[in-house]
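Design a sequence for this backbone.
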C-alpha cells in the first residue's frame, strides 16, 4: 500500500517504549545509551506532545506500546532487567501520559505484536494506518514495523519523533524501513507534516457536516 490520505478514525499514533527507563538517568536503558542518547531521546518529547494533542483533536487513536517486563521475559536473556512491571521505570512521563480513550499496551518483547493483543485491539477499532514514533528506531520500532507490515498495516514513520542509541543507528533504522517496508517516500514524514494532514482532515470533516 502506498502513501495516500487515510481517515483519522482509521489511523493510530503508536508511541513505542516512552518509559522512564528509556529516557532518564538511572534507567538501565538510558544509562546504557549515555548522556548524549538521553539528551536526544528527551528532545523528542515536545514533538510527541504536539503529535498527541493533534491526534486526539483529530480523532486519531493514541496507542502506547511500552515495556513492562517480568523476570521470566526472554528479552532479559539479552538485556539486564529494565522497565520492570509495576515500577516507576515502566511508567510513562507525565508530559506525554495516557488519557482516557487511549490504548495502553504493556509489552514484554521488542514488538507488541508478539506478546500482546494489540492486533486484535487495532482491528476491532478499524485501524489500518499506524504512525510509528518512539524508541528505538533500529530495534523496537523496527520489530514493531516489521510485524505490522507483514500483518497488512499501512505504515508512516514520523522521522523527528523517533530516536536510537546513536544518530547513526537512528538513520540506519530509517534506511532499513525504506529498504524493506516502505513503498512510497511519503511514508516518511516530519511531525509538522503529519499534524498538518490531521488538521486538514479534521477541517474537511467539519465542513461536510
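Sequence:
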Amino acid at each position: 500500500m502506498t502513501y495516500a490520505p487515510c481517515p483519522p478514525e482509521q489511523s493510530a499514533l503508536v508511541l513505542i517504549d516512552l518509559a522512564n527507563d528509556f529516557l532518564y538517568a538511572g534507567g538501565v536503558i538510558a544509562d546504557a545509551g549515555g548522556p548524549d542518547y538521553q539528551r536526544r531521546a528527551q528532545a523528542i518529547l515536545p514533538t510527541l506532545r504536539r503529535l498527541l494533542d493533534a491526534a486526539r483533536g483529530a480523532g486519531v487513536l493514541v496507542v502506547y506500546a511500552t515495556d513492562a517486563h517480568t523476570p521470566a521475559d526472554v528479552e532479559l536473556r539479552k538485556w539486564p532487567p529494565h522497565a520492570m512491571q509495576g515500577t516507576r521505570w515502566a511508567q510513562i512521563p507525565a508530559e506525554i501520559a495516557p488519557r482516557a480513550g487511549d490504548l495502553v499496551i504493556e509489552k514484554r518483547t521488542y514488538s507488541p505484536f508478539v506478546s500482546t493483543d494489540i492486533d486484535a485491539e487495532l482491528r476491532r477499532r478499524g485501524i489500518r494506518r499506524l504512525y510509528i514514533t518512539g524508541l528505538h528506531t533500529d530495534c523496537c520500532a523496527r520489530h514493531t514495523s516489521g510485524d505490522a507490515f507483514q500483518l497488512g498495516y499501512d505504515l508512516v514513520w514520523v522521522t523527528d519523533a523517533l530516536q536510537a542509541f546513536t544518530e547513526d543507528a537512528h538513520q540506519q533504522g530509517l534506511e532499513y524501513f525504506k529498504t524493506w517496508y516502505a513503498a512510497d517516500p511519503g511514508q516518511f514524514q516530519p511531525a509538522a507534516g503529519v499534524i498538518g494532514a490531521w488538521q486538514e482532515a479534521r477541517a474537511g470533516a467539519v465542513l461536510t457536516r
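The chain is about 40% helix and 20% strand.
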